[in-house]
Known about the structure:
This protein has ten helices and nine strands. The chain has about 280 residues and is of the alpha/beta class. It is globular. It starts with a strand and ends in a 13-residue tail after the last helix.
Amino acid sequence: METRTLAGRLVPVVGQGTWNMEGDDRASCVAALQAGIDAGMTHIDTAELYGWGKVEELVADALEGRRDQVFLASKVHPKNASRSKTVRACEQSLQRLRTDHLDLYLIHWRQDHPLAETFAALEELVQAGKIRAFGVSNFDVPDLRESLKLVGPGKLACNQVLYHLEQRGIEHAVIPWCRDNGVPIVGYSPFAVGRFVEADGEGAQVLGEIARAHGVTARQVALRFLLRDPIAFTIPKASKAAHVRDNAAAGELKLTEEDLRRINAAFPLARSTRNLPML
Length: 279
């Protein structure tokens, strides 16, 4: 599995998302997460919002006896993003995850609380050893600029954003800003929350042809395209071990420049919109 630097650590480019796992079979999800760790997908991302704690508890089951093998990330909900509530929310996440620290803690998205308060809480959590690093999620360029001014260079571990073949909006401004300022991006929902490309469309045909040429699957090709920028990571969610292992193989796939050109043409970047795409 290829690794890149995230929060000062070498982290696999393909990790594991957990959004909506509370609605799936629990035993299957635990087995899938464990299969992912075995396959080198040791970056596991969750949030207090996911099932309002239920998914963090599920993740804890999957990490039993294996916490030291994993780069673990969670997120604070915007309603809890005041200085005091951020600290409390983190402590509650730690309890549900049955760990004494998070490797990465993110602001899930920006809402009403001043960023200065939230970042002060995150700095406090770092000093207390409860988190190793912090970052943001669903932040557009103006919010990123404000964040950088508040925390200083090198402090934002990442920006986690929506990114899949049919939603490439972050390529207009967010990725260039993050690249220029040394902030990795972690793309969520790379398969568009179960709405992967239409089977009979031109895009699917191109992915299929490239996949056959490399002896891989179309989903692996899609994931690898989303990783073509050296600051990029991706965190597909899979609740079955077979799907996890399929995702993991994208971490070793090498696409040619011609492959990238064909995919880019089949899934063209849409015109820039005013609002950052998010789910």
